[in-house]
Amino acid sequence: MILYINCCVRNKSRTDRVARTLLAGMGEYTELFLPDEDIRPLTEEAVEKRTALLAEGKLDDPMLRYAKQFAEADKIVIAAPFWDGSFPSLLKVYIENIYAVGIVSAYGADGIPIGLCKADELIYVTTAGGPYIPDFSYSYIKTLAENCFGIPNTRLIKAEMLDIEGMNSEKILSDLIETITGTEV
Q1: 161: which residues sit within 8 A by CB, 6+ positions away?
Q2: Which of 19, 55, 65, 81 is deepest in the core (most CB within 10 A)?
Q3: Do 87 and 81 form a contact (C-beta atoms < 8 A)?
Q4: Half-sphere exposure (CA, 13 Å, Cβ side) for 27?
Q5: Is it the case that residue 135 has pLDDT exceeding 70?
Q6: How far, in Å, CA of 15 to CA of 154, rounded?
Q7: What is the DSSP letter of 42?
Q8: Is pLDDT above 90 for 84?
Q9: Residue 91 burial (CB < 10 Å; 0-12/13-18/19+)?
Q10: pLDDT of residue 111
Q11: Which pLDDT score, from 0 to 100, does residue 183 have?
Q12: d(CA 171, CA 148)
């Protein structure tokens, strides 16, 4: 199963447009549209509940559904626009909710994370109005995927400088889409 984690809140999101072009060539996928999900930051009560569920092996509890879905995906595509030096906060809240030890990750005797996710690849799709700086977006996701979740391959697909005066945003997007599809747009 391909899991599409869509963190694009705008109706005509350029990031979603690029991601859907990529997904069209990948086959069937399951979309998780984060703005429509009831995902909230974890509170002390929620952390305690999750810890108890994991300790008791109650992995079918609805609280763990996102973690299970993420861990069971064969490939993962995340679409998140580059906002204010990072990605939308909703993606961080989602990550906080899926990082369930025993489902997406475990810890070895040395304390180093051991990834439990099935996916062989995570593709991060983003667009930026100005220059794209991956430090607090893709680099963060890449580190989690490879070092904590056990996803061996990550890839960045990006379009940048889309809102800079004098730049042709439609051409930038069309060129990227042409690269993805191998056909002229």
Answers
A1: 128, 129, 130, 131, 167, 169, 172
A2: 19
A3: yes
A4: 6
A5: yes
A6: 17
A7: P
A8: no
A9: buried
A10: 92
A11: 61
A12: 37
- Token pair listed for 41: 């930051």
**One-letter identity of residue 82:** F
- When pLDDT is averaged across residues 173-182 and rounded to a whole number, the result is 89
Output helix, strand, coil percentages for the chain, rounded to the nearest 5. Answer: 40, 20, 40
Rounded Cα gap, residues 34 and 38, in angstroms: 8
In 3D space, the residue among 60, 76, 107, 85 whose CA is nearest the CA of residue 5 turns out to be 76
What tokens were used for 65? 């559904």
User: What is the crossing angle of helices 65-72 and 89-98, to 10°?
Assistant: 90
120, 75 Cβ separation under 8 angstroms:
yes
Question: pTM to 2 decimals?
Answer: 0.93
What's domain 2-181's superfamily in CATH? Flavodoxin domain (3.40.50.360)
